[in-house]
Amino acid sequence: MPSYVYYQKKIMPLEEAKMGVMTHCIHYGTAAFEGIRGNWNAAKKQIFLFRLKEHYERLFKGCRILRIDLPYTIEDLNRITVDVVRQCGFKEDVYVRPVAYKSTEGLGVRLHNLDADFFVFAFPWGRYLDVDKARCGVSSWRFPKEIARAKLTGLYITNALAKTEAIENGFDEGIMLNADGYIAEGTGENLFLVIDGKLVTPGSYDGCLMGITRDTVIKLAKNELGIETIERHVDRVELYSAEECFLTGTAAHLTPVAEIDRRKIGSGETGKITRQLQKLYFEAIQGNLSKYSEWCTPAY
Ligand code: PMP
């Protein structure tokens, strides 16, 4: 089954979408992007796109930083995304990648006097961290301090350096510190600890992206389990003594962490709170929790 893309204002097969080699964003990382999940619900024969609106709100924030003025509203982008996913017709989990980018074919480092455009495509994508429990290592690469919290393509070089370092060191994922030495996040996920039965996670001031999965988990923990989340600086050594640890992200979902820097977290098995949250999260993203149905946009 082919994938489709909305590119240059029309929907076409993904392999037909080509970009010129001089396109500005390729050279200087001048693009804002998102990652959105479409989750297949076999019983309902439906793909639910999770928290579309919030993803496009964050894309527009990235566009502001890059001075990208898109001739679309959030509602337009929601509709286009649903059209693309419907056109693909997949009956499995999909990943959706919207990109707002500087489209002028010409060189020169700058943000001004450049055209901008938008594309979005969908493709089947199963597990991102392909393990039940992740083994992580703290990275030697640190986030740049200035604009780490935006989802801009150029900023992901640090993440890519940290990811490859982690894999080559035998881990599944790297954990990045910020310039002050506090925990920031994984290379594509936010990080949570369970300490004294409460959730603890770094705040935006620690350089982490304000994840939509992070927000989802905080709300589910509070509303469904009565567990509060404390946002604060997290020291590296706190990782080693936490009761439980897990990562959250659109691609990685909610992945338990078994080990960090070759030290077991808790017993090394998935913790009780992590397991409860994981169950709630999967029910929510598959459109099975009516209380949270406004988070799920049906594609079919
Ligand atoms: N941090 C980084 C660096 C990411 O790339 C992502 C994935 N977008 C996240 C955190 C998690 O964000 P979200 O839950 O919105 O996918």
Describe, in short, the structure shown.
The protein is of the alpha+beta class. It contains seven helices and 17 strands.
Question: What tags apply to this protein structure?
Answer:
eight-stranded antiparallel β-sheet; 2 domains; nine-stranded mixed β-sheet; alpha+beta; D-amino Acid Aminotransferase, Chain A, domain 2; globular; single chain; D-amino Acid Aminotransferase, Chain A, domain 1; binds 4'-deoxy-4'-aminopyridoxal-5'-phosphate; 300 residues
Element layout with pairings:
Layout: E1 4-7, E2 10-13, H1 24-28, E3 31-33, E4 36-41, E5 46-50, H2 52-66, H3 74-88, E6 94-102, E7 116-124, E8 134-142, H4 156-168, E9 173-177, E10 183-186, E11 190-195, E12 198-201, H5 212-225, E13 229-231, H6 236-241, E14 244-249, E15 253-260, E16 263-264, H7 272-285, E17 296-298
Parallel strand pairs: 8-9, 8-15, 12-13
Antiparallel strand pairs: 1-2, 1-7, 3-6, 4-5, 4-6, 5-17, 6-7, 9-10, 11-12, 11-14, 14-15, 15-16
Helix pairs in contact: 2-3, 5-7
The structure holds 4'-deoxy-4'-aminopyridoxal-5'-phosphate.
Residues 35, 159, 185, 188-190, 209, 211-214, 248-250 line the site of 4'-deoxy-4'-aminopyridoxal-5'-phosphate.
